[in-house]
């Protein structure tokens, strides 16, 4: 995957940790609306046991990079100009968020924007990942 705000990486390099993949595009209003909540999600102590990445389906790298700059993004993002990941993940609508286990198996897909740092979204994420990893601290696991 070609890096937008970091080096290129193979998707297989993320094996071994649960992975939340958010598929988005700079022109997608709902994608823009949920990006701040994904950033906040990434900074929560109770989410340190999984990795969050973004995958842009933009045709133009400069448009995707401009969006990341305007969002002050700290999450690692990649671009899928050939739409290989989009097709593999079944991203026929955007945004799409995919939860993947440590072996690369898809555990859940959420079509449409969400407030990813909300209690209901956190409960969904932890429930989906419950068999692949435990939350990082006891206070997080007591909340579920």
Topology:
Elements: E1 2-3, E2 19-24, H1 29-42, E3 51-56, H2 61-70, E4 76-79, H3 84-89, E5 96-100, E6 106-111, H4 119-129, H5 138-142
Parallel strand pairs: 2-3, 3-4
Antiparallel strand pairs: 1-4, 2-5, 5-6
Notable characteristics:
alpha/beta, single chain, globular, disordered C terminus, six-stranded mixed β-sheet
What does the model show?
The chain has 144 residues and is an alpha/beta fold. Helices cover 32% and strands 20% of the residues. It contains five helices and six strands, in the order E-E-H-E-H-E-H-E-E-H-H. A six-stranded mixed β-sheet has the order 1-4-3-2-5-6. Strand 2, helix 1 and strand 3 (51-56) form a beta-alpha-beta unit. The chain is globular, with a radius of gyration of 14 Å. The model is unreliable at 134-144 (pLDDT under 50).
Stretches with pLDDT under 50, minimum 5 residues: 134-144
* DSSP helix fraction: 25-40%
**CA radius of gyration:** 14 Å
Question: Secondary-structure element sequence?
Answer: EEHEHEHEEHH
Mean pLDDT: 90
* Structural class assignment: alpha/beta
DSSP helix count? 5
Can you tell me the overall shape? globular
Kindly estimate the percentage of residues that lie in beta strands according to DSSP.
15-25%
- Give a quick account of the main beta sheet: strands, pairing sense, barrel closure: 6 strands, mixed
Offer a quick outline of the entry.
This protein is an alpha/beta fold and about 140 residues long.
């Amino acid at each position: 995957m070609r890096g937008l705000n970091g080096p290129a990486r193979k998707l297989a390099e993320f094996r071994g940790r649960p992975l939340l993949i958010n598929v988005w595009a700079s022109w997608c209003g709902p994608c823009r609306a949920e990006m701040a909540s994904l950033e906040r999600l990434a900074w929560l102590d109770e989410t340190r046991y999984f990795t969050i990445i973004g995958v842009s389906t933009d045709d133009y790298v400069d448009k995707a990079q401009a969006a990341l700059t305007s969002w002050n993004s700290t999450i690692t993002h990649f671009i899928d100009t050939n739409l290989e990941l989009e097709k593999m993940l079944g991203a026929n609508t955007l945004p799409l968020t995919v939860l993947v286990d440590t072996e690369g198996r898809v555990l859940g897909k959420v079509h449409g924007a969400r407030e990813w740092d909300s209690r209901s979204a956190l409960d969904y994420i932890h429930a989906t990942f419950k068999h692949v990893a435990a939350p990082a601290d006891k206070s997080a696991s007591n909340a579920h």
